[in-house]
Amino acid sequence: MSSSTQERSSWSGKWAFILAGAASAVGLGNMWRFPYLAAKYGGGTFILTYLILVFTFGVTLLLLECALGRRTGLSAIGAFRHFGKKFAFIGVLASAVPFIIAPYYSIIGGWVTKYTFAYLMNGPAALADDGKFFTSFISSPVESFVWMAVFMIVVFIIVGLGVDGGIERANLVMMPALIVMAIALVVYIISMPGAMSGVAYYLIPDVAKFSPELFVSALGQMFYSLSLAMGIMITYGSYLDKKSSLPHSVANIGMFDLGVSILAGLMIVPAAFVAMGSGEAVAAKSGPSLMFITLPKVFESMGPQVATVIGFLFFLLVAFAAITSAISLIETMTSIIMDGKGYSRKKAFTITCVFTFVMGIFINLGFNGLSFFQPLGKGSTILDLFDFVSNSVLMPIVAVLTLVFVGWIVKPKTLIDEIEVSAPFKLQAAWSVMVKYIAPVLVIVIMVAYVGAQFGVFKF
Predict the structure, then answer these.
(1) Distances in Å between the alpha carbon of 153 and those of 73, 156, 344?
(2) Which residues pair with 43 in a beta bridge?
(3) In Å, what is the CA distance from 339 to each residue of 138, 384, 429?
């Protein structure tokens, strides 16, 4: 018996798994991408489309990956190799994703951590300067690296304490705190004069805005938000006992992800209405510029004392979301090395930390020392390249291969039997159809659309 088998971790129960899965799913994408997309694509129309996709396509893939992990008791490479060595390559591709994402995700996590403290140390006015503060910080040859390291150290300490002693306890504190802070911020923001116009803009469906572009955007957001096709849910499923109901658990993970996404929009869109008189500011911005340039200006318009509190709480909330997602990436990488090399957890974890830190330094150089290297065209960075390769190329390929593998090679019945170990699976026929026919087509649509968008063929 290898040391990795001897030391394999497990969740203390079903809710520990649900919280961990939700913590992995709830990340930066919920905070800076969902509100922008909802504002751009007809508010409630986008939310309704997203909801339907989460509880059909999204839950289908979540259930597949969790069942695959629990059936084999292994992380991605081992889980696919379990059915034959020739299938291990699917696990290798899936396993590459967290190794690509974790370093650059930690860089952005460092930005969020910096802003959390900056609201207390520098004040809201210093951050609301049309991006000068942000640009000077990320291009700094010292400061940006220091805050990346601070973020990584927090994540490393939590994962280093183990699944039950570190990850479960951190999720038990951070996930409820994140939700409480989000609700408190929503209540405050929507009580401000003029905010209800933003709420209406955000929640009331504008059916005229439904389009293929809306559908593809909702599909892509759902796919990337739920931690699919990156080995995480296979790893987390491998820690789950046989008594826990998989369909119930993954439905709860989907609900957490949807709920936090909607709350994020209820914070950001009405706040933009109050400050700027319309939701167009949100609809026109996404990603880092929305989070680090537009929102500080919105907060600053609330007055210095209010802006300090709101800005600090908002970025603390986002920091918690970033930390919980980074935890799942580091844990998955550790588990992959343990299962693949037979190393002890301590040795695998050490390798994971060193790799993440070194790669983080390299990617971060793209904003200063290596800024001349623009791999995807003018203005692009090394981080953009890593994000494109992982999100737009590898993840859809892994998802298609996984769906073909389960749908046509080992057959859905193999995983249906695993799912039914804990509870009857009434939707098995619909799930099988989704796995075999519908989901592969939808993933191919995501890949074509997002790769095409990168090269200017489509615009999203």
Answers:
(1) 29, 5, 21
(2) 205
(3) 36, 30, 33
Residue-wise pLDDT tens digits, 196-226 = 999 999 999 988 889 999 999 999 999 999 9
Q: Cα(460)–Cα(440) distance, rounded to whole angstroms?
A: 21
| Closest C-alpha among 261, 232, 279, 291 to residue 99 | 232
Each domain of the chain, given as residue ranges in start order, spans 3-454
User: How confident is the model over 39-72, as pLDDT tens digits?
Assistant: 989 889 999 999 999 999 999 999 999 999 999 9
- Angle subtended by helix axes 304-341 and 14-25, to nearest 10: 110
H helix intervals, 243-294: 246-276, 280-283, 287-289
Over residues 256-306, the pLDDT tens digits come to 999 999 999 999 999 988 888 777 777 877 778 889 999 999 999 999 999
DSSP string of 140-182? -SSHHHHHHHHHHHHHHHHHHT-IIIIIIHHHHHHHHHHHHHH
CA 431 to chain centre: 24
129 DSSP assignment: S
* CA dist., res. 458 & res. 460, Å (int): 7
**Span 411-417, mean pLDDT?**
97
Report the alpha-carbon distance of residue 446 to residue 61 in Å, rounded.
14
Check: CB of residue 69 under 8 Å from CB of residue 377: no
Burial class, 3, CB count within 10 angstroms (exposed 0-12 / middle 13-18 / buried 19+): middle
Q: What share of the chain is helix, strand, coil (3-state, %, to 5)?
A: 80, 0, 20
Return the CATH number of 3-454, one of 1.10.10.60, 1.10.10.410, 1.10.4160.10, 3.30.470.10: 1.10.4160.10
Cβ contacts of residue 153 below 8 Å, gap of 6+? none
Cα 198 to Cα 201: distance, rounded to the nearest angstrom: 5
Instruction: Tell me which residue of 74, 70, 73 sits closest to 91, measured CA to CA.
Output: 74
* 330 in Cβ contact with 102 (< 8 Å): yes
Alpha-carbon distance of 119 to 107, in angstroms, equals 19
pTM greater than 0.85 (yes/no): yes
CA distance 169 to 160: 12
User: Which residue in 49, 14, 68 sits closest to 435, CA to CA?
Assistant: 68
Enumerate the β-bridge partners of residue 205.
43
Q: What span, in angstroms and rounded, lies between the C-alpha atoms of 284 and 269?
A: 12
